[in-house]
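Thread: "does anyone have the structure for this chain?"

Original post by V.I.:
We have the sequence but no experimental structure in hand. Need at least a predicted one for the grant figures.
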Amino acid sequence: MKAELRLVLAVALLLLASGAVAEEVAGLPVHVQKLDPGAIRIWIGDHISSTATVAIATDKGILVIDTTGNPKIDTQLRRIIARELGRNDFKYLINTHEHGDHTGGNAVYADCTIVGHELVGEGMTAQAGNLARMIEWNTTRIAELERDIAKEPADLPALARMREELALSRLNLEAKQADLKPCPPTKTFRDRMTLKLGDTACELYYIGGLHSASDIAVFVPKHGLLMTGDTMADTWLTETPGCLASFMVRPGIRHDFPLLFRNWDLLLAKKDAIRTYVPGHWNGELSQAGFAERVAYMRTLWDGVNRGIAAGMDLAELQTEYRFDTRFPELASSRGCSANGNATSILGIWSAVTGQTSAAERLYALVDEGAGEQALREVIAARDAKPAKYYFLEGELNAQGYRFIQADRTAQAVALFKLNVELFPGSWNVYDSLGEALLKAGDTAAATAMYEESLRLNPESPSGKAALARIRGATSSS
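Reply from O.Q.:
Generated one for you, C-alpha cells below.
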C-alpha cells in the first residue's frame, strides 16, 4: 500500500473515532460519533464546549439524551439524527439536568415523552425568571467578542474558538429574545427509574447536587453506555472545559447525599457492564478509574465532615483537616478537582448536615436587591444565635464583594466589604478589599484609611503598599 493511501486511511479512521464532521449548522461544524451500533453522539463546534446529544435506536423508537439548548440547532440536529439512524420515530427525550444548554431545545421534541428528575421543571422555571439578565449578559458578551475578534491578528489560534462562541452566542440571544415557553419533562422520578423500550432498557439514577439539583446518570446496558451529564470528567479535550470544569458539591442547592451514594454504589457495581462513560459535553472524557476516584473522594469528605461535626469540630477546623493539598495530593492534577472546589464541597456538606446556610450568600442577595439596613442587621445578629442559622466565612463574603466589583457595582461592593470589616475586624485582608472598593468609588481619603489599617495588621502586604504608593504619588503630583 502506498504511503499516501495509508495516510489518507489513517486520517479517515481518526476522524471517525473523534466524531467526523457531517455538515454545518448555522456556520458551525456538526460532528457525529458512532458509540455503538444503533447509538450515536452528535454535537456542534470544534472548539466550544457545546452539549453533546446522544441518540439511540430502540424497538420502541428513537431515544434522545439531552438537547443542545437551542431550538434552531436542535431542529436541524433532529433531522441529522433521523438520517444517521435511518428512521424518524422519535419517542423519548431524557434531560440529564435542568440547565438551559440541555433543556432549551425540549420543544423540538414536544411530540415525545420527555423524562427527567422531578426538580428539572422547577429549575427551568427559575431560569426563565432570569431571562432579562441572561439577555443582558449575552448582549454584552457578543459585543466583547466582536471587539476582541476585530482587534486580534488574523493568525491568532484563539480566533477560531472566539468565532464559534460568537456564532453560538448570537443564536442563543435570538432564542432568548423569542421568550419561548419552557417545555419541562412530562414523566419524572425522584430516586431511580427504568424505562423499558422494547429491546433496550434505560436506567435513570439521581446524582444531584454536584452540578445542579436535578443531575441524573443514564445507563443503557445494551450498549454499555453511562451518561453522566455535567457532573464530572477526567480528561479535557479543549482549553476551555466549560460546564465540566469543576467536580464539587454546590452549596445553596438541594442535596440528598445518602441517596446519591446509594446510586453511585449501584453504578460502581455495574463497572463490568459499562464500556463507555459519556459526559454531557463533547470536550470531556471520563474513565472508569476517574469515576471511581471521584466517588471515593466525595465519600471521604462526606464521612469526614459528619464525624467532625459529631466530635464538635467547627467549619474552620474541618476546612483545615481536609485541606486539598495536604489531604488529597493525588487529586492535584486530576481534571475538575481543585482546592477551591474542595473548600466549596466542605461548605455544601456542612450545610446539608447542620442545616446552616451561607451568611455571605444571604448578605449578597440582600445588598443585590437593595434591602434596608434592618434586613442586613438581622443577618449579622444571627451570628450568635443558638442553634446557628448561618455560617460566616470571611473569604466567602470577600468573594461575594468581588462579584459586585466585577459587575461594576461599586456601591454594593463597598456595602458588602464594610460588613466584612465589621464581622472580621482583625483581618488585614478585609480592610484591603474595602480600600480597593472605596478607591474605585472615588473616596480616596476613606480608601487611604483602610489601606493604612490593613498595613498596620499586615505590614508586608504588597497590595496595600502598592495602593498607598499610587495614592500618595497621585496626591503629590496634583
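V.I.: this helps a lot. Residues 357-477 form a domain with the Serine Threonine Protein Phosphatase 5, Tetratricopeptide repeat fold (CATH 1.25.40.10).
O.Q.: and The first strand starts at residue 20 and ends at 25.
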